[in-house]
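Re-running the complex after MR caught last week's input typo. The corrected sequence lines follow. Everything else is unchanged.
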Amino acid sequence: MGMTADTQFHVLAVDDSLIDRMLIERLLKTSSFQVTAVDSGSKALKFLGLNEDEQRKADRVSVDSNSHQDLEVNLIITDYCMPGMTGYDLLRKIKESESLKNIPVVIMSSENVPSRINRCLEEGAQEFFLKPVQQSDVNKLKPHLMKSKVEEEEEEDQFNNNKRKDMEEETIHQIEPEQKYSS
Amino acid sequence: MASRRQIAAMKQSLFDQDYLDEQFIQLEELQDDANPNFVEEIVTLYYRDSSRLVSNIEQALERNPLEFNRLDSLMHQFKGSSSSIGAKKVKAECTLFREYCRAGNAEGCKRSFQQLKREYATLRKKLEAYFQQARQAGPFEAARRSK
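Corrected-run output:
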């Protein structure tokens, strides 16, 4: 399947509270995640937007598909209540983006409001954690990441298989009409 | 210097008297050899970060009439941080304050806030004393899980 033992997942954490950022960062690092923590939805989008450019650059320049692994975000975990762009707003923007919509998003909130939770899940959030977030919550994240990783790799395999088939067909086409084909 | 048993007793009384709750234990479990002072660091940051909120609330309480929505919003933030470090009594006062906000009870808000400040200050003193003793006893005590 191509997954190395030391594959590290990169989580983008979004929370306007300094204390909660410190806490979620520690929780995630304890589970061996790589973490980037930002204090607003707009900063999160900026970070993800920069990622997009880096990925495009990497795809053009190098053959090695892992060259942009450092910057790739595998999961976003965001607070719901934030000034300006709420976690829900951020979730929607991510799900509306062609390049970002497949990144799993988890919402955190200090308030247990069923309608809020349902709204987020309906909008595509994978999980909803009640604050303060616990280690047991963070332990639920790996399966979502593994699933995304498998789906991503299956897509890549499919893509590569199709590419190879196309190339083979082209080669055959070249050989048949023109006997002076040289490799 | 306090013995390990005295330090453990100090900590236990903080739980028994409801100054701290289960969340504090969660914080301790996040400590390891690489991060042996995580709890003290986050508590220190809490007091530094929330002092700004406390003075904002104080100023807001001096206005006439009170802006209950704004007060509620500030207190929501304060409650969140307090909850994240396991500050049980402080958190309870935050909840009470918010109830007064929603009821539009200005006197209740002011009274509750005075009590909140007392709890907040008391907890700080107790935790500072606890951390100081724990540090003197050595990193083993600070990092050890409590059951």
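None of the earlier attempt is carried over here. The CA atoms of residues 157 and 163 of chain A lie 10 Å apart. The beta strands of chain A are 10-14, 34-38, 75-79, 105-109, 127-130.
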